[in-house]
Design brief:
With 235 residues, the protein is of the alpha/beta class. It contains eight helices and ten strands.
Amino acid sequence: MSGETITWKGRFGPMELRVGKATFRPSTISSLLADALEVKPGSVVVDVGTGTGILSIIAAKLGASKVYGVDAADETVEIATANARAHGVADVVEFAQGDMFDPLGPDIEADVVIGDVSGIPDEIASASGWFPSGLAGGPTGAELPMRMIEESKRLLKKGGSLFLPTGSLQDENSIIERARSVFGSMRQLTERNIPLPSSLAEDPAVLTALKDKVIALKQRGSRFQWTAHIWRVDA
């Protein structure tokens, strides 16, 4: 198995994690999701966009009886399974590679869905270098998250929860409107301003998205920031 090792310093950390060439590395959003995540003992959890498997591992450590992690990137199963094994939860967590929820059986019902899918516009994602698999959120960054919201509806048990990240570096309003349309009830758990690298702030893809009001940035001195939110969306 190819890859290198990085250190997760978020919830339950530090933890050493393997990453592959196509593996999305845990981000500030990953840390915010980890801190906000609520899992009752015995819960069934689905973690879409699992990457290294870190949020699946955390869900297992919080007491989930079964966690299914899914990602479209190459080596997902090998990388994430190795990480789960290294941190003592391989008996609880199962990983699959594929599109969205497609690899999951039709009978799976979840108490919790972790919706950490890529959610920035394709052209900005390409310029950022943050997405080694090349998978991004669609032209406005809202298309993939909105699809995930709709597909989560069939998986979640009544009373279950979707933990959903959104941000101003995408068409955030469309995602929030879709979540409210599909589920009705949602509550903001976290808000964080995140600095945007200067080189990315000056990229034509970002400037165009700003001009078209697809994204929104705040200026603090000479730096630009975008705002991230974590929501709990209840079925």
